[in-house]
Amino acid sequence: MTKVYIHYFSGTGNTKRAVDVISENLKQNNFDVHKLVIGKDRLVTMDNSALHIFAFSILSWSAPVLVKKYLRRLAAGRGAKAALFAVYAGDPGQALVDAQKILKNRQFDVFLSGGACYPNNWSQMTNPVPADEAKEALAAGDQTALDFSNSFIKGEAKQHPSFASGHLLTRIIAFFFALFGRRFLGKAYIVDSNCNHCGVCIKSCPVCTINMSGLIRKKPHWRFNCEDCARCINICPQKAIQVSMPKLIIHSLLLIAGIGACFPAAGFMSVMVPGVFRIAGWILGFAIALMAALWLQFVLLDRILFLLEQISPFQKFFQMNFTKNYNRYMAPGFKPEKLNQ
Ligand SMILES: Cc1cc2nc3c(=O)[nH]c(=O)nc-3n(C[C@H](O)[C@H](O)[C@H](O)COP(=O)(O)O)c2cc1C
Ligand code: SF4
Ligand code: SF4
Description:
The chain has eleven helices and nine strands. The strands form three sheets. The chain has a five-stranded parallel sheet, sandwiched between helices. Strands 6-9 form a two-stranded antiparallel ribbon. Helix 1 crosses helix 4 and helix 8 packs antiparallel against helix 9. Bound molecules: flavin mononucleotide and iron/sulfur cluster (2 copies).
């Protein structure tokens, strides 16, 4: 029996669903399938006679940061055959191209890449279709996943159509999303008065970036490392997680101001060092100023905002949001791994 490892990450269950379709088909065709959840499990020893499938959802035209880290840290594949599968709502951008590059560097032979369109889960910014109205889209996604698994079984060498485009603009956006965007979008989350402190959001976050915190009354607080996978906002049984408009605006303006302030700081640093080191001085100055600006904004100011959120005159102000009337989306039957324990 040929062994197949399916390494996957799923925020709200679409990728998990596709992985289940792929894995069932492989099992029926006598493959020995092992599933590994990226962010939770790890491949202990690399068996290069085994086949590998890497499946993940698309966040801002890219693979989630935790997926890219996982791929970079894999033991050398020494020629092991691999396939990539992206799950998205419209356009995977350069995600598959980039993931293939990382795997090539890890000595994997990526012979197949594919992807399926499933319902949108970005409830933070868009109003998703509820899962019970998404049956057709789910069935279409499942069919594409099944076709992909058939290609995998036959060993077909094929690349996803996204390999044909250049993706310059989406690549730039994805770069900034991975560096700042996902973190500051995480910082815009807030809980409204419907929160009953059940802790489901905390237990289900794949990167453990939510904790119960607060001087006056403990409530969920989003720290610095959000992937923006949309799991917490969609899983909350009370629909109590919202995107605070004031926090979104404050953090956006401060982020722009903070990055803007890095330029004069870098200029100052460059004139403080001898001529030949000017460029190095500028880069160092910029990096130091950026770290300081991010710390001030996402640690110090964030703490102050979180404290203000708990004081009644400010509570209503910070709870102004546009997500209260948005639907929430979870693939039917999906339970994140940590909640299964
Ligand atoms: C922050 C965020 C960014 C997203 N960016 C994209 C994107 O660039 N392209 C796309 O087609 N779908 C995008 N989506 C939609 C998801 O990729 C899509 O809903 C996917 O099916 C989710 O899979 P999952 O349930 O396994 O997490 C995004 C979703 C989120 C939460
Ligand atoms: S899941 Fe919802 S109700 Fe439960 S602690 Fe988190 S925000 Fe509050
Ligand atoms: S805080 Fe929410 S959106 Fe961010 S990584 Fe955790 S579950 Fe995903």
